Amino acid sequence: MLFILFTQAIWSAAFSASVMPWDRAICSMIVSNRSCACWSISARYEKWATLYNLKQMAATVSVYEKSGFSSPEELEAALAAASAGLHEVTGKLKAVESTLREKKDLQKQLLAYIKTKPARDGLRAQKTEKARRAYREQHESDFIIAESAARYFKAQGITKLPSSKTLQAEIEQLTKAKNALYNEYREKKENVREWRKRFPCA
Hints:
Elements: H1 2-14, H2 43-66, H3 72-115, H4 117-124, H5 129-138, H6 140-155, H7 164-198
C-alpha cells in the first residue's frame, strides 16, 4: 500500500498543473520492465522499474521547466532555430573566407606585377628590335612574372588594376569580418552542442 501511495505522489508531481505530455522527451530514460530476463518471475524488479521510470519522468519535467520550456515541441522549435542560426553563420563565414582568399591571390599577383614595372618601362625605352630582344633576354625572369600576372588578371576579368593601398584595406576589413563571424560560429556551435547534450531526445 505504501508503494502505491508513493508511486501516485511521484506521478502527480511529474504531471502537475500545465505540464504537457512528455513521452518523447523521456524516450532515452525509461527502463523497460521487460529488459530483465527474469521479469516474469520478479515482481520486485517490476516495482523497481516502475518507480525508477516515474522518478525519471519527474526529473525530466523539472529540467524542461527550469530551462523555460513547457513542452518538447517548444524545445524542438528552439533547437531548430539554433541550428538554422548556426547554418546561416557557417554560410556567411565560408563566403567571407572565399572572398578573402581571392583578394589575397589578387594582392599577390598585383605586387608581383608592380615589381616588374622598371623592367617593363626599360623595354619600352629600347629603340630597335634587336635592342628589345637583348633587353628581354637580360630581364627574362621579370617578364615571365609580368606575363603570368597579366594572364591572371585577364582570367579574372580584371581590366583596371586596384591600388595596392585600396586592396590592403579591403583585406583588413574582410579579415575583421572573418574573425567576428568565426567567434559567432563557435558560440552558436557550442550552444547547439550543449542543448543536445542536455536534451538528447529532442
